[in-house]
Amino acid sequence: MNKKLILSLMAAAMLALAFTSCKKDVSEEELLKNQLAQTDSLLKRGGVIKYTVKLVSAANSSMLKDAMSLKDAEVIAYQNDSVYTAKTDANGFATFPNMRIGTVAVHVKLTGHAEVDYIADITPAESLINLSQTQIMNTIRYASTMMPMFPIADPGCATITGKVTAELDLTNTTPEPAPGVKVTATVDVDDPDFVARYIAPTQGTTSNSSAGRILKYAFSDASVTATTAADGTYTLKVPASVNGLPVKLNVADYQSTQKLYLENDPTTNTFKPGEYTVPVLFSSNVEPSPIPEVKPVYVVVDEPTAPIGIVYKSASFTFELDANGGISKVNVINKGKYSSKPALVVSDQGSGTGAVLEPVFNTTTGEIENITIIKPGSGYLSIYCNIFLLQSKRTAKINAAIDDNGYIYNITLSDKGTGYITKPTVRFLAPNNNAIEPIVLLIMNSGLGGIANVYLQSAGSNYRNVFNYPIDTKSVNSTLSNCKLNVKTENVIVKNINLNTGSRIK
Q1: Is residue 145 within 8 Å of residue 94, measured between CB atoms?
Q2: What is the pLDDT of residue 38?
Q3: Which is the most buried residue in 83, 175, 186, 486, by most CB within 10 A?
Q4: What is the pTM (predicted TM-score) of this model?
Q5: Would you say the C-alpha torsion 406, 412, 417, 423 has a positive or negative sign?
Q6: Going by C-beta distance under 8 Å and a sequence separation of 6 or more, which residues neighbour residue 238?
């Protein structure tokens, strides 16, 4: 190249620098670097690089060699603002005869295979010394990269199939099919085995100084996604190789509903044991919710209804009975004195029952002026009247024991309670709807306003000792950690995935 041409090129570079320096988004340093690179490219100061790309189908074997053709792959090389295109021959070679030292970005597209992008350093290791500029410009050196291509279509790909399940019903012991779950298979290009097997042999380590070594790479079709059917099944056609390709499975976040037993109504957070359906999220980014503990039976005793107050002086009465043993008249002998209106409870030593008395209370004096007979009752022989005005009261507690067949075979009174002016109702509530409550008999202590004893008259049935399954929780990640596969050409791999118990959404 003569001096006039060199000066013209330098002048053109400086003119381009002056023309573009007014652009705010490009620094002068970057412009200068670009112009020098272009000048260096035109001057061939590093000589000419004849660069060859060799494609290798990772699926090829003696059985598939004819089927997985390497011919006519499109190879596009980008260097120094120039684009070069070549087609591979029958052996998978594509050559670019007029490249320069430095890096080159390459895109490869081969029918039936995952597309690949990579950056390679095609600068030869040897230096050009003791040569004139003219000799350097006429020197041709060589660089090459061998790139594995992974099939994404038959006959070279592999099949991964299976079923995705989740604990959508904690009331049984079997996980349910999970429809609509997105399952993704991804070639694990960061796996050490992948790098050692497919990249390092092609001069793909940065420590190798050979021209054509790969600096970065990416497979655009390295991920394949399928959505599970109504029965939870899925099928993926994935890239594969004869020697095996590391592929990992993952699932997208999946939201559904979950049936389970709870102590409290989730909408009101009030005590109401039962079977409920709540929203649930299965995700590798959240921890699973704990499995709720639910008792097989909740014994609920009515709260005592005796009034609260202070007795300053106790009242006394006499009673007159009618022919049926009912109360016909109450005589107030001593009006007593109370901070608030007390309650009256009638009892006797015989079979009398049903009498209801209401005191007429003077709020000014705190005295009982009279007694109103609400119900006379019947069968009374002798009457004793308890006057209730307590400083505190306490709900009675009853425990129930269930056998392996779901029957309540024993009940015990753990707290007799205080402040009952009438016999309380006892309920045996179970989370499951088909439980049959037992029948119990309560013996009241009328003097203390508590339950003296409780007897089981008929056993309940259909009670359960365990409600929600499984007992222990597991995260989605614990399942996905076992979803790393070595996929070989034409293999069919069955991989079932259980999303476990999920995280309930409040």
Answers
A1: no
A2: 55
A3: 175
A4: 0.69
A5: positive
A6: 152, 157, 158, 159, 160, 185, 187, 224, 245, 247, 487
